[in-house]
Design goal:
The protein is α+β, with helices and mostly antiparallel strands. It has helices at 3-14, 21-27, 32-44, 64-71, 79-85, 144-153, 161-170, 175-185, 188-200, 207-216, 246-253, and strands at 18-20, 48-52, 55-58, 76-77, 96-100, 105-107, 116-120, 129-132, 139-142, 222-223, 233-235, 240-242. It is elongated, with a radius of gyration of 22 Å. The termini are far apart.
Length: 257
């Protein structure tokens, strides 16, 4: 059996739609040189497609979430992409956001419509993932609470404050998970903003989170919307500068998509 046929049989037997050179080395008796030659032949004939050096996909397989996590195995789908997947926004990002600890920046993959945007965070922030899919089609995505906390942490990757406020108001949240994830991202300003919103919007069953937020609240006054000038009413309870009008926040929170 020629090396190309060995590769294709191996993919079929293992139900692999994404794979690496290392996976093939471990699963077949082919040498590295033979694999390189066979993979070159198969890519030239468009049977398989190279994702990046050493990583490939079968031509028919275009699941962006699986491919994104295959490129960043320590992370998962997050921010605006996760917000949309959880049904918390109807706004579609024009790229797939991937949280991880190693890669950063935008990367396009041949044959995949939208680019991937890799967001690098500290390893301790890589928590709150749900495992989705099955087998070779497995991928990870931040759960609802982690998605909300991440979006407040880096709102530039979430479509801005309007989308985050609407999502927060719509989401059913676990107060204990919110505390866990706020501790992981270690951003007190984010904790204060979420606590303020939880009170303003009368989010149910958030007492545990509000108690935690009050305990960690520091003396520094942070703007509610970090993207706007720090001008507005000072809210002493949560040490925030309300640079958005409360009526505007309530209107945004309750607006339809």
């Amino acid at each position: 059996m020629n090396p190309q046929a060995v590769i294709l049989n191996t993919l079929n037997e293992n139900h692999w739609d994404v794979f690496t050179l290392v996976m093939l080395l471990e699963e077949t008796a082919l040498t590295k040189s033979s694999l390189h030659s066979a993979l070159w032949y198969l890519t030239q004939n468009e049977v398989i497609v190279q994702i990046e050096k050493g990583k490939y996909r079968r031509k028919h397989f275009t699941d962006e979430n699986v491919i994104a996590c295959f490129m960043a195995p320590d992370g998962g789908i997050a921010y605006w992409s996760a917000l949309n997947a959880h049904g918390l926004t109807e706004q579609f990002p024009n790229k797939t956001f991937v949280q991880n600890s190693r890669r950063r920046g935008k990367r396009s993959v041949f044959g995949i419509g939208s680019p991937f945007h890799f967001v690098t965070v500290k390893p301790e922030k890589l928590v709150g993932y749900k495992k989705l899919g099955y087998g070779n089609h497995t991928y990870y995505m931040t759960d609802i609470e982690k998605t909300i906390v991440d979006c407040f942490d880096l709102p530039q990757h979430a479509g801005g404050y309007n989308e985050i406020i609407k999502a927060f108001n719509k989401a059913g949240l676990s107060a204990r998970k919110m505390v866990t994830y706020c501790k992981a991202i270690n951003n007190i300003a984010v904790t204060k903003r979420i606590a303020y919103l939880a009170e303003l919007l009368h989010k149910p069953k958030m007492d545990y989170f509000l108690k935690y937020a009050a305990e960690v609240c520091n003396e520094k006054h942070n703007p509610f919307d970090a993207s706007l000038p720090s001008k507005g009413k000072y809210l002493n309870k949560w040490r925030l500068i309300l640079n958005m009008d409360e009526e505007e926040i309530l209107e945004i929170a309750n607006s339809s998509y």
